[in-house]
Amino acid sequence: MSGAGVDCVLEAVSAPLVFGRRVGCAVLRLPTESQVFGLLDWRRSAEARSPSSWSFAAAHASAALRVVTHAEQRETAGLRYANPAGGGVDCLNSKLARLSVVLERPGQRSLRLLSDSAALEHGLVGAHSVRMLL
């Protein structure tokens, strides 16, 4: 992912709680710093709109982060993982997801990062129309 000549890595995960709210954590690694957003930094805006779309926002005292990602279904493939306790999860994968990241820090210009080749992995239980490889 890059923006304004900046190479970086974003790692993020979210999951729904029993009562419906999504929680998660994220780390944005830039060449000169890392911004870590933990469980308590996540806003109520985390949303998985479909197996191929995900967005969230997180903030702490020194930074705010907004992320939107989307992968076309035709560029997504699924792998089935068995749960030892029974059942399983379909892991839907794309290596061609579009990703938009906005990082805001007090006293600095907003940093907007874009990629059209981001990796998106989405664990899903239930019906979907993504083609399964295994």
Give a description of the structure.
- With 134 residues, the chain is mainly β.
- The protein has one domain (2-124).
- 0% of the residues lie in helices and 60% in strands.
- It is built from no helices and eleven strands.
- The strands form three sheets. Strands 6, 7, 8, 9, 10 and 11 form a six-stranded antiparallel beta sheet that branches.
- A hairpin with a 2-residue loop joins strand 6 and strand 7.
- The radius of gyration is 16 Å and the shape is globular.
In short:
The protein is mainly beta.
Q: Which features characterize this protein?
A:
single chain, 134 residues, mainly beta, six-stranded antiparallel β-sheet, three-stranded antiparallel β-sheet, 0% helix, 60% strand
The share of residues in extended strands comes to over 45%
- Briefly note the structural class of the backbone: mainly beta
- Secondary structure tally, helices: 0
Strand count, sense and barrel status of the largest sheet are: 6 strands, antiparallel
Query: Measured on Cα atoms, how large is the radius of gyration?
Result: 16 Å
Please write the string of helix (H) and strand (E) elements.
EEEEEEEEEEE
Strand runs, count: 11
Indicate the low-confidence ranges by residue numbers: none
Net shape: globular
Multimeric status of the protein: single chain
- Average pLDDT over all residues: 85
Number of domains: 1
Termini separation:
29 Å
State the helicity in percent bands.
Answer: under 10%
